[in-house]
Amino acid sequence: MGKRLRKSELLKAIHLERAALDDTLALLTTRHMTQTGVTRGGWSVKDILAHLVEWQQMNLNWFEAGLHGEKPEMPAPGVTWR
After folding, report:
1. Which of 5, 30, 34, 65 allows an S-S link to 10, with CB 3.0 to 4.6 Å?
2. Is 69 left (phi over 0), alpha (psi -120 to 50) or beta?
3. Is 24 exposed, middle or buried (0-12, 13-18, 19+ CB in 10 A)?
């Protein structure tokens, strides 16, 4: 398992990594973002980012459901593990 961090350390690491991602993405042109074949499956950078955003949103929804004492639907409605 990974190193356990205090909340403040975790938030700082998240902000640093997000800034690094933003700096890297700022270097890409529209053509770079939409060029297919970045992965073996043929995805573009844009596709990868959309995938990550969707997973982040699902995780936030699951977390929010847990805060309300609900059991989140996993995987999310309309999504399969395939």
Report:
1. 5
2. left
3. exposed
Distance CA 34, CA 45 (A): 6
Residue 1 has pLDDT above 70, yes or no: no
Per the listing, tokens 């949103």 go with 57
CA distances from 17 to 22, 62, 72, 77 (A): 9, 23, 28, 30
pLDDT in tens, 23-70: 999 999 999 999 999 999 999 999 999 999 998 998 898 899 999 999
User: What is the pLDDT at residue 15?
Assistant: 97
